[in-house]
Amino acid sequence: MGPEPHYPIRIIRRVKILYHHRIANPGTIPLEIIEVQSGNYLGEDDIVRFEDNYGRSA
What is the pTM of this model? Predict the structure, then answer.
């Protein structure tokens, strides 16, 4: 198996605290998301799901 393809497109988005957001890929090229957390607390128990297509909303 050869090396993975390299896509030169890089789009960086910062999501502000308490900002409601959703990610979608309307294109045909597979989307790769790298999530980076910063700050004093890096847990995920503070996530509030408002709407979820995968049945994870509370």
Answer: 0.50
